[in-house]
């Protein structure tokens, strides 16, 4: 049986670097994203340089039924997914009242609905085989509501809570599940799509390498939540001792995302 690692959001940013990392370890891949052209180029590069089997599944996970179509793609080709890496996700910066319904629904679909559906569909096979791993790329924003990123931080809180619950439910099944919770990562396309001026961010912006190391740490260990840097640990730890309102105000100042419509 040939096992594959499925990565969503694989055409750019963290997802692309994760695809390169897993290919480098010898994993066969299923790459999922909206841009078929980018996926095809990446798939050819990884197959040529690493000698792994790479399949491209072009889907927009903001669309209803897209996650199910990804599952059907794998089923029809007999691709056995033993690692599911949920990396697809995006943010919309600015005060919540200025976010359109379409923007919010698309973000919720990608960040929560598609992620949950993919886990539910692929988990059944992992449970039968009693082996597998689910890696959810979450965010520090999931620990605290962030003014200017209200919808995004809410969706990432959903991912954290889902991961924590499934971590307990899957004990003794042979399935590993954990969430990686980075702070701000150097990914210009993420900020451009969000309408987020990264020059206003007042905390360190890390390279994608910290996420790759956190994923490796998560796969090799037993943690439920993996914080990539010491600074991430300090922020989460300090948050515990601050009143909720103060923590929220500080989170908004650090993020510098309240730029759309509010001018703040």
List strands and helices in order, with pairings.
Blueprint: E1 3-8, H1 13-24, E2 28-33, H2 36-50, E3 54-58, H3 66-76, E4 80-86, H4 101-129, E5 132-137, H5 150-169, E6 175-180, H6 188-194, H7 209-220, E7 225-226, H8 230-239, H9 244-255
Parallel strand pairs: 1-2, 1-4, 2-3, 4-5, 5-6, 6-7
Helix pairs in contact: 1-2, 3-4, 4-5
Would you write up a description of this structure?
- With 264 residues, this protein is α/β, with parallel strands linked by helices.
- The protein has a single domain, classed as NAD(P)-binding Rossmann-like Domain (Rossmann fold, 3-Layer(aba) Sandwich), CATH 3.40.50.
- The protein has helices spanning 13-24, 36-50, 66-76, 101-129, 150-169, 188-194, 209-220, 230-239, 244-255, and strands spanning 3-8, 28-33, 54-58, 80-86, 132-137, 175-180, 225-226.
- It has a seven-stranded parallel β-sheet, with helices on both faces.
- α3 (66-76) packs parallel to α4 (101-129).
- Mean pLDDT is 94; it is low at 260-264.
């Amino acid at each position: 049986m040939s096992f594959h690692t499925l990565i969503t959001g694989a055409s750019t940013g963290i997802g692309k670097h994760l695809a390169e990392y897993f290919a480098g370890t010898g994993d066969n891949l299923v790459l999922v994203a909206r841009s078929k052209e980018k996926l095809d180029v990446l798939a050819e590069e990884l197959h040529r340089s690493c000698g792994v089997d790479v399949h491209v599944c072009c889907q927009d996970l903001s669309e209803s039924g897209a996650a199910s179509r990804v599952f059907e793609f794998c089923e029809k080709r007999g691709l056995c997914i033993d690692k599911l890496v949920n990396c697809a996700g995006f943010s919309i910066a600015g005060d919540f009242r200025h976010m359109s319904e379409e923007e919010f629904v698309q973000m919720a679909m990608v960040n929560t609905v598609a992620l949950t559906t993919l886990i539910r569909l692929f988990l059944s096979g992992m449970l039968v085989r009693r082996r597998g791993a689910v890696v959810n790329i979450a965010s520090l924003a999931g620990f605290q509501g962030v003014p200017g990123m209200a919808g995004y931080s809410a969706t990432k809180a959903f991912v954290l809570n889902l991961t924590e619950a499934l971590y307990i439910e899957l004990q003794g099944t042979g399935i590993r599940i954990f969430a990686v919770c980075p702070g701000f990562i150097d990914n210009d396309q993420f900020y451009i799509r969000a309408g987020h001026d990264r020059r206003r961010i007042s905390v360190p912006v890390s390279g994608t390498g910290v996420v790759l190391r956190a994923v490796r740490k998560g796969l090799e260990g037993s943690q439920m939540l993996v914080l990539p840097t010491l600074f991430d640990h300090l922020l989460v730890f300090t948050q515990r001792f601050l009143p909720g309102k103060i923590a929220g105000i500080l989170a908004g100042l650090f993020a510098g995302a309240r730029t759309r419509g509010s001018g703040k």
